[in-house]
Design brief:
With about 270 residues, the chain is an alpha/beta fold. The protein has helices at about 60-65, 90-95, 110-115, 125-130, 135-155, 170-185, 200-215, 230-235, 250-255, 260-265, and strands at about 20-30, 30-45, 45-50, 75-80, 80-85, 95-100, 190, 220-225, 235-240, 245-250. It folds into 2 domains: about 1-95 and about 185-270, P-loop containing nucleotide triphosphate hydrolases (Rossmann fold, 3-Layer(aba) Sandwich), CATH 3.40.50.300; about 105-185, no CATH class. Helix 3 packs parallel to helix 6 (about 170-185) and helix 5 (about 135-155) packs across helix 6.
Length: about 270
């Protein structure tokens, strides 16, 4: 893979109406303000990037969206429902999935079993039947396995499907984590620096997969990423944070030309 593809290669994509809106979110830990009066929206089927220097509040923003943190002020509206207080289980059940900066996989378990854990919310049979692996549970298990095998094929990791995750290269582990999030069939996928620590080839592969998830599954994506080339190539719109405040919001071109953004972030060598 020579160049990361961009959305210009798929002009037929249709961006829908607002799926997520974040209104006047403020978050503080003790006297330290992590986020101050942040508002932005995310449209269905788009790739929405959140950028900014280290400590700008990007991960804190994702943590508010999926309920890990409860902001002191503001509201979050997802798919027409408004919340002042979200929690991670509610977020997951509504179709919000998340990956993390630091890989959070079960290192001793196989690729297949790790991705299967992403199906937990979809499993309906009771624990007794699951333990016996009989009747409706066997049919359900096979159905979930078919879905997981499709994700494994999609992410091109068939050759390591039975390998313990801890033995795999870093870039492949990040791909498995993406697969586990996809197993939940999310409407909104939150990616926290999915390309951090990767070499150029791994980054290009991950770019392709992020675009394919968006194009083929129709998944809406909110992405935190430091690599500005990646952000400008694959994002539909970009919101820029600095010291917990929003300083820019618009298309990649608009953000690239925003003086406040240039001063705070783009003009800084990374």
């Amino acid at each position: 893979m020579s160049e990361p593809a961009s959305h210009e290669h798929n002009p037929g994509r249709r961006i829908g109406g607002t799926l997520l809106s974040v209104d006047n979110i403020s978050l503080a830990f003790g006297g330290v303000k992590a986020l101050t009066d942040i508002s932005f929206d995310v449209r269905e089927h788009e790739i929405r990037a959140i950028i900014g220097p280290n400590g700008a509040g990007k991960s804190s923003m994702l943590n508010c969206i999926n309920g890990v943190y409860t902001p002191q002020q503001g509201r979050i509206r997802f798919d027409g429902q408004e919340f002042q207080r979200m929690d991670p289980h509610k977020a997951a059940s509504m179709g919000i999935a998340r990956t993390f900066q630091n890989i959070a996989l079960f290192k001793g378990m196989s690729v297949l079993d790790n991705i299967m854990t992403g199906r937990m919310l979809k499993m309906r049979t009771n624990l007794f039947l699951q333990a016996l692996y009989v009747g409706p549970n066997r049919r359900e298990e096979l159905e979930h396995r078919r879905h997981v095998e499709h994700i494994i094929d999609f992410l091109q990791i068939e050759s390591v499907r039975k390998t313990p995750v801890g033995r795999l290269p870093y870039g492949v582990q990040k791909r498995v984590e993406l697969g586990r999030a996809l197993a939940a069939e999310p409407r909104l996928l939150l990616l926290d620096e999915p390309m951090a620590g990767m070499n150029i080839e791994e980054k290009q592969d991950m770019c392709r997969f992020v675009l394919d998830v968006n194009d083929e599954f129709g998944t809406t994506i909110v992405l935190i990423e430091h690599d500005m080339g990646v952000v400008m190539d694959i994002s539909d719109r970009v919101v820029v944070l600095d010291y917990g405040k929003k300083i820019g919001d618009g298309t990649p071109g608009e953000v690239r030309a925003n003086k406040a953004v240039i001063d705070a972030y783009l003009g800084v060598a990374h």
